[in-house]
Amino acid sequence: MPLYVLYLGVTAPDDFARDTRELRDHTRVRRELFEAVNRERSAHRVAPLRPSPELEKAAQGHADDMLARGYYGHASPEHVMVLGRTREAGYVADGVGENIAKGQRSVDEVMKAWMASPEHRKNILNPMFTEAGYGIALGRMPQGDEVLWVQVFGRPRTGAR
Prior knowledge:
This protein is 42% helix and 22% strand. The protein is of the alpha+beta class. A four-stranded mixed β-sheet has the order 1-3-4-2, sandwiched between helices. Helix 3 (53-69) crosses helix 4. The chain starts with 11 loop residues before the first helix and ends in a 5-residue tail after the last strand.
C-alpha cells in the first residue's frame, strides 16, 4: 500500500499579507494608536494628545522613506532627524519627539513594546507634548517583509497655531 505525504505551506509574502491585512487601513490604525496612547496618558494622569496633520505628515513620510530606501533609524541616510522632518512638514515647535518600531503586527503589540521601553514610554507620557501624528508602512525591505511604525510628538510654539 503506497504512503503519501502531503505538505501544505504558505509563502512568506502570502503569510505577511495575511498577518498585516488589518494594518492596511491606515486611517483606522492611526485612530487606534491615538486611542491607545491617550489611554496610557489618562491612566498616568497626563492630558490627552490632539492630532496634528503636520506631525502625521512627518511621521508617515519617515515611515514611507525608511521602507522605500531600506533603512531603519531616527536619522535618514542624510542625517535628517525628527526636528528637520517636522519643520519640513510645516510644524513650528517648542519641542518634538519620535518613537519608531519595526516588526509588530498590531497596535496592541507595538504599544506593549513602546511602553516596555523606558525611552519610548517617556515620550508617550511626556506632559510637554500636546499633539501627535502617526505613520505606518508595510512592505518589502532588504531583509524581508516588514512593518514600520512611527510616532511623532510635538508641542507647537506659542502663537504658532
